[in-house]
Amino acid sequence: MVRLPLTPTDVERGQRLGALLREARGERSMLDIALDAGLSPETLRKIESGRVATPAFSTIAAIAEVLGLSLDEVWATISPTPAGDRLRERLVS
Asked: Which one of 6, 34, 59, 75 has the fewest beta carbons within 10 angstroms of its own beta carbon?
């Protein structure tokens, strides 16, 4: 299967996802979160750094569950929509 190149929107969304996950993780170790989510720490590191801009849905769901985030909250935060912009403003302030 051939993967299509990432669009600038995909890259930006991946960066927002990484920032959200890093913030939600706080002081908890990457190792603990990754293992609790059933992932390798390297996978979590790549997602948090934005190097994996489009992780699988099941991967995002597993991380979100461990971090106590709803998938609606994750999507609203990372999606380039007016609703996502409003939620990002609420989370930042």
From this structure: 6
Nearest to 77 by CA among 2, 24, 5, 8: 24
Q: How far is CA 27 from CA 1, 22, 24, 54, in A?
A: 38, 9, 9, 25
Q: How many CA atoms lie within 13 A of 28 on its CB side?
A: 18
pLDDT digits (tens, 9 = 90+) for 8-28: 989 999 999 999 999 999 999
Kindly list the distances between the CA atom of residue 83 and the CA atoms of 46, 75, 87, 88, in Å, as whole numbers in the listed order. 27, 10, 6, 9
Give the residue, 39 or 79, on which the prediction is more confident: 39
